[in-house]
Model the fold of this input.
Amino acid sequence: MEVTDTLTTQQDSMRTARAFVPGHVTGIFRIFDEYKDPLRCGSIGAGFSVSLGTFTSVSVMDYPSLEITTDYNKERVDAKVTKTVIQRLTEEYERTLKVHVDHNSSLLSGAGFGASGAGALGTALALGHLLDSNIEYEKAAGFAHIAEIMNHTGLGDVLSQTIGGIEVRIRAGGPGIGVIQNISYPDSLKVVVAGSSGLQTAEVLTNSGFRARINSIGDKLVRKVIDSPTINTFIECSRKFAEQIGLRTARVKQALDELEEDGFTNSSMVMLGDSVFCFCDENEAISVKKTLSKYWKLSEVSVTNIAAQGGRLLE
Done:
């Protein structure tokens, strides 16, 4: 068989599925990860999904052993969370495959915008569909949540990214266990996000001092949002949480102070990132972006919308 024939045969045997998952920002949270079952671990808290997100394409073919490659915005990466999703899903279905994952994302990685969760959920939905066209959404999404917990890269992003909107997580856990209540918002609402990598989620989530402070401060404030699920309560409690846990970088504090001076008080720190968010109207977004561009590169500042729909398979 000629080389061209071999390539054609491989291409014919390769199957592909695609998914899109919105980014997610958490403003406040409280950790619950003491359970042996990672599906029961997670967080209560509040945040929102954004239209910026990740398109994930998963291609598979049968292979003697499991082989995984991942590209993130056309760059080959060692994507531990994506790899964990694939390993656990292929073990579940007792398959050995050659798997290539292509993440095409508008989310800044490591900035607290849910890039890890988006990639994990997109991979789980696409690969889950390829392994079992009748797989329940909840089951596939559970593999993404488990991968985040195992790698200490997130607690509540995946659950929130399955739903979309502005949410308060009222019971911790992954899909099928965690419970979310949506917070209403005006259709005209815009979100300006700015940030860069700086705070390492895994380092914070495994640091006993930070964990104790987050849980002590977060517990009361999250309960307040649960009791009064409105945008105003969410912003108020997020700002208090950010101020009291002691993780704000100098520019996060300066940027939020300037936004407040300019009257843009519906803003707070992104958990966990060297990043901020601001809710505003469309006619205010340009001014907010201009202010935040003093502190972050223009490429690190984006105007977006609330994503009303969660992660999903694409045709």
